[in-house]
Design brief:
6 helices, single chain, mainly alpha, two-stranded antiparallel ribbon
């Protein structure tokens, strides 16, 4: 998740707002010490334009390469700000 967030060039504060969680909880999710509910996983996957299954599976060389090859796109969030997001 952290790799995808960084590839999309979204900082932690902005990402936490996009997903609707607090930054301390985001930190715990990224460092592996939290177990978010399914609805949070779905919101994270949506924000990163991926699937919950992809987030929950162990990364492989193939999935890593596929994400690195995708160009970024810009979108508007409900907050009216613009973010770079993976296709």
């Amino acid at each position: 998740m952290q790799r995808l967030r960084k590839q999309a060039k979204i900082n932690k504060k902005r990402f936490a707002l996009m997903v609707g969680i607090g930054r301390p909880f985001l930190n715990k999710i990224e460092d592996g010490t939290a177990n978010p509910r399914l609805d949070v996983v779905v919101r994270i996957a949506d924000a990163l334009d991926t699937t919950p299954q992809e987030l929950l599976s162990a990364p492989t060389d193939e999935t890593r390469e596929a994400h690195e090859a995708k160009p970024a796109r810009t979108f508007s969030s409900s907050l009216g700000t613009r973010h770079s997001r993976l296709l």
